[in-house]
Design brief:
Elements: H1 8-16, H2 18-26, H3 28-49, H4 53-62, H5 69-76, H6 97-111, H7 113-131, H8 135-150, E1 157-160, H9 173-176, E2 184-188, E3 191-202, E4 209-215, H10 221-224, E5 225-231, E6 237-242, E7 253-264, E8 268-269, H11 275-310, H12 323-358, H13 361-365, H14 371-374, H15 377-383, H16 386-399, H17 402-434, H18 440-455, H19 462-474
Parallel strand pairs: 1-4
Antiparallel strand pairs: 2-3, 3-7, 4-5, 5-8, 6-7
Helix pairs in contact: 1-2, 1-3, 2-3, 3-6, 6-7, 6-11, 6-12, 7-11, 11-12, 11-17, 11-18, 12-16, 12-17, 17-18, 17-19
The protein binds flavin-adenine dinucleotide (FAD).
Length: 491
């Protein structure tokens, strides 16, 4: 059979990322899989996102409650909601899971930061289900996402950690210890009763499933921080409002309200009390790098529209013919390439780490049991028991060492704050150079500027990420302790 000819977008990707071109010499199938993902994202941008993004942004300023489900349904065709779901349960997450996510997110955000976030926030919601090794829910929730996506129905997830009185504080062990926590998940017979609010949750108002972190004792949040799986139709759970956002408007930031919501024991991901290590630090170690790629995509989109603007003639002159504009364009491209090397160094390192665990025969052997049996009650009771979870811990501990996880967190935080700051610099400079122009390109760049701002805030503000990087890489005072066999591994 003749080999498929690579598209122009695919060839450009390999030129922009020479490290991928070099890896392709050794692993053509794996890297061609990444190229295909980016080609798909480029096609989705061209056919769905670009024609609607500006109009959608304006509409959501007037109607912040509106959500474009059609665009989500059309994303199903490319299976973007399965990007973080391992292949063994039918998802697309290959041995380049983190890199695939980062590259797709850059591509999507080059067209619209909001649509890119709507898709990325879903994978962030999926991540704790994967990282906790809660295979019971792989066979139910993740299986449902994959199967419904194939039919064109997006089943979305979201990740909720921020509370009205604790944002930065819930992202760092030292701060969580002193945080003023509002939500509590009180232990009762057979589960937990949850009361309180979460806020600014990306995609929270659309999510069918939620991964939630909460204290089981508000006076000792660090020791009792726990990750739960929440289902939208649980009694007492609601999403009363969404924010009017300055940027990335296509993705809602929602407030979530829990009024005596009962969450059964089976919906604790990992162990009670391991939420800081398992539910936050390991997730942030994986996901802050892709936030860097969100920022990079927004910056690249801004750059491309600015470049188009510089080529247009005004009063017989083209801005691109001036040296000061040419130098600005060179600076902007340098910022984009710097971003890419930062997020790629995180993602390739992360893939090397996770690949060992998720491709190990011991792990894969669990999936030799037929799906119906795996999803059955007796099997799930065993997997969800103290010892079942302990076995998963042993596997994770064996493959993912504390130092490697901590190094990944450092690289993730570095990529996050540096890429976000570069995106603000780039889009801001482009706007200044364009001046009071009312061209369509300026509207795109202005949107990119507003979209970029939010990447400095979420997944920990850039201040917090600078501190996390310093503590993990330079001072060695922040260390992830991967939960051990039958242990919580708080930090
Ligand atoms: C668009 C958007 C999407 C979001 N999506 C999600 C989501 O999906 N899930 C979720 O759980 N959360 C989400 N968030 C919340 C986000 O993670 C928090 O806004 C962020 O962690 C900051 O918390 P805060 O808003 O409470 O600010 P604060 O913590 O009150 O911080 C205010 C300022 O003080 C600084 N600061 C605070 N403490 C320190 C310190 N110790 N040292 C130095 N500086 C400090 C901060 O850097 C910041 O500049 C989202 C936020 C936004 C804006």
């Amino acid at each position: 059979m003749a080999a498929k000819v690579m598209s122009e977008r695919g060839r450009k990707l390999l030129l922009d990322f020479p490290v991928l071109a070099a890896l392709r010499e050794h692993d053509r199938k794996g890297i061609d899989g990444l190229v295909k993902l980016v080609e798909d994202a480029a096609e989705y941008n061209r056919t769905v996102v670009i024609p609607r993004a500006l109009e959608l942004d304006e509409r959501m300023e007037r109607e912040p409650d509106y959500f474009d489900w059609d665009m989500m349904r059309e994303a199903c065709k490319y299976r973007f909601f399965s990007l973080a779901i391992p292949e063994v349960v039918g998802g697309l997450a290959s041995k380049y899971m983190v890199t695939g996510m980062a590259l797709v997110v850059e591509e999507l955000c080059s067209a619209c930061g909001g649509i890119g976030l709507a898709i990325a926030a879903h994978s962030l919601g999926v991540a704790p289900v994967i990282a906790s090794g809660a295979m019971v829910h792989w066979d139910t929730v993740l299986h449902e996402i994959v199967e419904e996506e194939k039919k064109g129905n997006p089943v979305l997830m979201a990740y909720a950690i921020t509370e009205p009185s604790a944002g930065t504080d819930v992202e760092e062990p030292e701060f969580l210890e002193m945080a003023k926590i509002g939500m509590e998940a009180k232990k009762v017979k057979g589960g937990y009763r949850v009361n309180g609010r979460k806020c600014f949750i990306s995609g929270g108002s659309e999510a069918k499933y939620l991964t939630l972190t909460a204290a089981t004792d508000r006076s000792r949040p660090l020791e009792t921080w726990t990750t739960f799986l929440v289902e939208r139709d649980m009694d007492g759970y609601s999403t009363p409002r969404v924010e009017l956002k300055m940027g990335q408007r296509a993705c809602h930031a929602a407030e979530l309200l829990f009024e005596d919501v009962f969450i059964p024991d089976s919906h604790v991901l990992g162990y009670e009390g391991d939420g800081m290590a398992n539910g936050i630090l390991i997730i942030m170690a994986a996901s802050r790098g892709p936030v860097g790629s969100i920022a990079t995509g927004i910056a690249r989109g801004g750059f491309e529209h600015f470049l188009a603007w510089t080529r247009e003639s005004r009063d017989g002159k083209r801005p691109i013919d001036e040296d000061r504009i040419r130098m600005a364009l060179a600076d902007m491209w340098a910022a984009i390439q710097e971003n890419r090397s930062l997020y790629l160094s995180h993602s390739l390192g992360g893939d090397a780490l996770f690949r060992n665990a998720f491709t190990h025969p011991l792990f894969l052997s669990a999936f030799l049991v037929p799906h119906q049996v795996r999803a059955s009650k007796p099997y799930s009771t065993i997997l969800n028991s103290y010892y079942g979870k302990g076995l998963v811990n042993i596997l994770f501990r064996y493959f993912i060492k504390d130092d490697d996880a901590t190094d990944m967190l450092a690289k993730a935080s570095l990529a996050k704050f540096a890429c976000a700051d570069n995106a603000m610099y780039l889009t801001g400079r482009a706007l200044e150079l364009m001046g009071m122009d009312d061209s369509p390109q300026r509207r795109w760049v202005e949107k990119a500027y507003r979209d970029a701002k939010l990447t400095q805030i979420y997944e920990g503000t850039n201040q917090l990420n600078r501190l996390a990087f310093f503590n993990a890489e330079i001072a060695n005072t922040l260390k992830i302790e991967v939960p051990g066999p039958f242990k919580k591994g708080v930090r």
